[in-house]
Design goal:
The protein has 284 residues and is mainly β. It has one domain: Porin. Helices cover 3% and strands 64% of the residues. It has a 19-stranded mixed beta barrel. The longest helix has 8 residues.
């Protein structure tokens, strides 16, 4: 047996199908390089097509596999400094500890979060303490057996002594398909999703959401992915409001991947209501 997925990954296959490789309304650049001593450098940049605003981040990540230690440092164009320290399997097998700190020098704003993650057969649980927001204690747990998953998530404000959030999820994963049911926002928003790998070239999936507070109509989104060959694939998705998403991803050469995508409002084809975008990823 292996540990189940984290709570946030229940229903992830359909989220990736409908969300990844759709760089909508922006131009993105990601560059990954690996130094001889094992340090991985990542540079991310994104330009908003509407506002022209450019956001970027430079990140360095070093992994010591012998000690189970990972150190990640980053600096963003918003002048936010981030440091994350992770310790995996050193104290006990399946236990991961992490410290995540951020600092904004311009205004002196800071944040520190401690986290712990434990996984074993049938169980995956996480907890974190945000020292400067509340402080707030968050936790989630997932139990799983024979493809069946059940999980819950809760947030607690220590200073006010009140529960700030609670969510629940159920899922089932088989060899070629998975389904998931979510109850979020204090069990007021319900969602169901399914993912099906039809064959090695075709994937399909859909999700539906309903908010009982607003009593609005159920929103539905369905999508598919088709592999043209081992280096290229296309994606398409459409929702109940008539928004059509189309995407094309091509591996130009090993380590170079480009994606083009667009969202088109089929109810206003003659209006300026559409968004385009592209993404370029370089792995060195």
């Amino acid at each position: 047996m292996s540990a189940p997925v984290p709570f946030s990954d229940i229903g992830k296959p359909v989220s990736d199908l409908l969300g990844k490789d759709f760089p909508i309304g922006c131009a993105k650049l990601e560059i990954n390089t690996l130094a001889a001593n094992g340090v991985k450098f990542t540079v991310n940049g994104s330009k908003d097509n509407k506002t022209g605003f450019i956001a970027g981040e430079i990140k360095a990540k070093h992994v010591d596999k012998v000690k189970g230690l990972t150190l990640t440092e980053s600096w963003t164009t918003s002048n936010v400094l981030n440091t994350q320290v992770e310790l995996q399997d050193s104290i006990a097998k399946g236990l991961k500890l992490d410290l995540n700190a951020s600092f904004l020098p311009a205004v002196g704003s800071k944040n520190v979060k401690f986290g712990a993650e434990y996984k074993q057969d049938f169980l995956f649980t996480r907890t974190s303490l945000d020292l400067f927001k509340g402080p707030t204690l968050s936790g989630d747990a997932v139990i799983g057996s024979e493809g069946i998953l059940a999980g819950g998530e809760i947030g607690y404000d220590v200073a006010d002594g009140r529960v700030t959030k609670y969510n629940a999820a159920l899922g089932y994963t088989a060899l070629d398909y998975s389904i998931a049911l979510h109850a979020n926002n204090a069990l007021n928003t319900f969602g169901v999703s399914y993912f099906h790998r039809v064959n090695k070239d075709v994937e399909t999936g859909a999700k539906a959401l309903w908010d009982r507070k607003t009593d609005s109509a159920v929103s539905v989104e369905v999508g598919t992915k088709y592999a043209l060959d081992r280096d290229a694939f296309v994606k398409a998705k459409i929702d109940n409001t008539g928004r059509l998403g189309l995407g094309y991803t091509q591996v130009l050469r090993p380590g170079v991947k480009v994606s083009f995508a667009g969202i088109f409002d089929t109810t206003r084809l003659n209006e300026n209501a559409h968004k385009l975008g592209l993404s370029l990823v370089l792995d060195g």
